[in-house]
Amino acid sequence: MKLCIAEKPSVARDIAKVLGATTPKQGYMEGNGYCVTWTFGHLCTLKEPHDYAPELKSWNLIFLPIIPKNFGIKLITNPGVENQFRVIEKLVAECDEVINCGDAGQEGELIQRWVLQKAKCDKPVQRLWISSLTEEAIKEGFNSLKPAEDYKNLYLAGNARAIGDWLLGINATRLFTKKFGGNKAVLSIGRVQTPTLAMLVQRQKEIDAFSTEDYWELKTKYRDVIFNAAIDRLKTLDRAEKGLEYLKVNPFEIVSFEKKEGKEKNPRLFDLTGLQVEANKKFGYSAENTLKYIQNLYEKKHVTYPRVDTTYLSESLYPKIEGILRKMTPYHDLIEPLLGEPIPKSKAVFDDAKVTDHHAIIPTEIIPTQGLPYEEKTIYDLIAKRFIAVFYPECKISNTLVEAKVGTIPFKTSGKQILEAGWRAVYAKDNTEETTEKEKEEEQTIPEFTVGETGPHDPMIHQGKTSPPKPYTEATLLRAMETAGKQVDDEELREMLKNNGIGRPSTRANIIETLFKRKYIERKRKNLIATQTGIQLIDTIEDEVLKSPELTGEWELKLRKIESGEYEANLFKEELIKMVTDLTKKVIEGKAKVFTIQEEVELKEKKKSEPAPKKELAAWEDIKCPKCKSQNLIKGKTAIGCSDYKNCNFKITFEIFGKKLSEKQLMDLVVKNKTSKLKGFTTHPENLTEGVVTLSPEFTIALA
């Protein structure tokens, strides 16, 4: 018997269907010589300090740094996890061969290897590696299984990442909390989290320190075209008014007129970060929500694997492109112009040298139906249009530069015209974002001018104010994480810097959400603002190694080199151990600072003057099912249940023992496994009318 282990029940179902393993059993499917089972994402985790020695449960500086001789793994403490692991353990013992069908990425490899390690697997292991969940892709994947040994470096990199995060997170968090927290707060430190926060704090300090100044510019209008004086901004109104008087008495003359034709390159296909950036810019979606929507689309087979960091396709995909385009019937009008000739095979799209574990995100041949939720529809539309746009011709433009003078003061203007829309035609009907005055001027249509021509002009003064740096949005923060804090607009240069980015595409959304949960940052409209607590934490950390995006980017590069076999995982671990040891010594011997918790003070003051605002409840769709741990919950007409109810069966009705529970009470029951004390129950079998509703580890409801 061959045992297939997928990362979640829904994926296991898709694989089982293709393999003909259609007989349902407790925790797996069986048939045609296969058993197909699943994990719920992480079943195992690295052991905690107290698992190595009971005294390490105590947060005490004398025990730091905590460096286990050998890192061990353990099952996550959860009845559902433990039950499912027992199923896997039994099947591993009985099978002849294991096929690792985990998520085809570094984290997916780590999840599966830890489970097999915990189950003491000594059977041959094969690896299924697929980029979409369509039936065709699964069949192709099973026809080209590879030995698990081929992915050993991927596991070593994932394991090194987990150990690195443990060493730094456990030791630095305890170290700074005990030294500076004053028993009032946990000061959370992380390998990626802290440099990301440092970038936000640095930007916040630049904004706070910025002093706005007025300035004046001279402009003039000639033949309905705005010209700007090519001189430094004027610091006083008096000088501007004198300049204006000078312009009024001097003639306007064209000095040079230059028109150049050029091309605007097609946008690149999406990697995960690019998609998150675009979704944040266009729809205001958070990185975490975009990841959730694209993951849903992937599991519904509409798009390829999403957790990718490349914008290129494998050359082997080229023969399939026309077939995918022909299936995309909702976009027929945009696709029809491409089908008259062979699809272009450009190096900007197809390049094996630029493809890592997976290719860029593209649609599959399975097109969404009308029932797709709005948010998923918008994400699919972004991916579909980008996929179509890369095969259109480049956009041809005309750039015009005009230089002029009024007396001795030089003036210039520029304009851009689209000669042939090319790929821009794909986006012609999209709502365009509001353009700034500067952008309007740059895109103004310039008539033909003759060198030496003169004529009447209409001079004016423009008053402006200097602007502080812009706060980060999720879009700009994701780009900064991708390039380790460097401001990079050029696509090709950004592609080169990805290896040194901080975090991975699949983890960056979670890092940002962690900063929100820790109250180190907050959201004001689209902007991300460092809180006083976040600023104080970064000011408390004197060691640049913890705060520097560049140094964290270097660690990330080493992890990638482990993945490609160019660097030793043990060497990476030794370097981190030395760093943690040096850091511990330095901080313990250093002077303690006073760390005040700003929010607590503000809250107390608010309570005196005004009632606290009502706490907003989380959306059910953002809460993981407590039973299967893999799917999110959904709210129906009469109950809250798992979105994968057919397989998971988790459900809580609104009415319990004759009493209808409020949304808050239901949320407490799901999240805390109990409600507060309630009254008004009318149908309890033992005639209880009040008590606490509880949710047992077996997911049964009781009144106590």
Describe the protein's architecture and organization:
This protein is of the alpha+beta class and 704 residues long. It has 24 helices and 27 strands. Strands 2-3-4-1-7-8-9 form a 7-stranded mixed β-sheet, with helices on both faces. Strands 15-12-13-14-11-10-16 form a 7-stranded antiparallel β-sheet. Strands 17-19-18 form a 3-stranded antiparallel β-sheet.
What share of residues is helical?
25-40%
Biggest sheet descriptor: 7 strands, mixed
What is the multimeric organization of the chains shown?
Answer: single chain
Strand content: 15-25%
Rg over C-alpha atoms, rounded to the nearest angstrom = 30 Å
Euclidean distance between termini CA atoms: 47 Å
The total strand number stands at 27
Uncertain residue ranges: 599-616
Give the strand order, joined by hyphens, for the main sheet: 2-3-4-1-7-8-9
Secondary structure layout plus pairing:
Blueprint: E1 2-6, H1 9-19, E2 23-25, E3 28-31, E4 34-38, E5 44-46, H2 49-52, E6 73-75, H3 79-94, E7 97-101, H4 106-118, E8 125-127, H5 135-143, E9 146-147, H6 152-180, H7 193-209, E10 214-222, E11 225-229, H8 237-248, E12 252-264, H9 272-283, H10 287-299, H11 318-327, H12 332-335, H13 374-389, E13 395-406, E14 409-420, H14 437-442, E15 454-455, E16 458-465, E17 472-473, H15 474-482, H16 491-497, H17 505-517, E18 521-524, E19 527-530, H18 532-540, H19 544-547, H20 549-563, H21 569-589, H22 598-609, E20 633-635, E21 639-642, H23 645-648, E22 651-653, E23 655-656, E24 659-660, H24 663-672, E25 674-679, E26 690-695, E27 701-703
Parallel strand pairs: 1-4, 1-7, 7-8
Antiparallel strand pairs: 2-3, 3-4, 5-6, 8-9, 10-11, 10-16, 11-14, 12-13, 12-15, 13-14, 17-19, 18-19, 20-21, 21-22, 23-24, 25-26, 26-27
Helix pairs in contact: 4-6, 6-20, 6-21, 9-10, 9-15, 10-13, 10-17, 15-17
